[in-house]
Design goal:
Blueprint lengths: L1 H12 L3 H7 L6 H7 L7 H10 L5 H6 L17 H39 L1
Helix pairs in contact: 2-3
């Protein structure tokens, strides 16, 4: 969900919610807090402000959760640091680990079901 990706972004940028909100032109952080807690969905202008304030952020990742959090080095507007690349890799590893865990659970459930069905035949 976009609010969880927004929290990941704030964490990765190592800024406070208030500092993040101020980078978007907000005087206070209330709107960002409401988005982070799922009470508001970010509007187009908010997404646009995020991408303008942080040009290294990958819009596909922010909007849909696809790709890396930060743009690749060969992108003209992306000044990505080694630390940001490491965060991207850690995040991808986390996602893969979660997927493997989910697949293992599904596999275990299917094995139980197969054994149960095999006993009825």
């Amino acid at each position: 969900m976009i609010h969880s990706r927004l929290q990941e972004l704030i964490d990765a940028l190592n800024v406070s919610v208030l500092e993040f909100a101020r980078q978007l032109g907000e005087r206070r952080g209330e709107k960002v807090y409401h988005i982070l807690h799922g009470r508001l969905k970010p509007r187009y202008d908010t997404i646009e402000k995020i991408l303008l304030a942080y040009p290294q952020v990958n819009a596909d990742w922010l909007l849909r959760g696809e790709g890396l959090m930060f743009k690749q080095l060969n992108s003209p507007s992306a000044a990505i640091t080694t630390e940001e690349r490491l965060r991207n890799m850690e995040f991808l590893l986390f996602q893969l680990t979660e997927r493997v865990s989910l697949l293992q659970e599904t596999n275990d459930q299917l094995l139980v079901e197969l054994r149960r069905l095999g006993g009825k035949l």
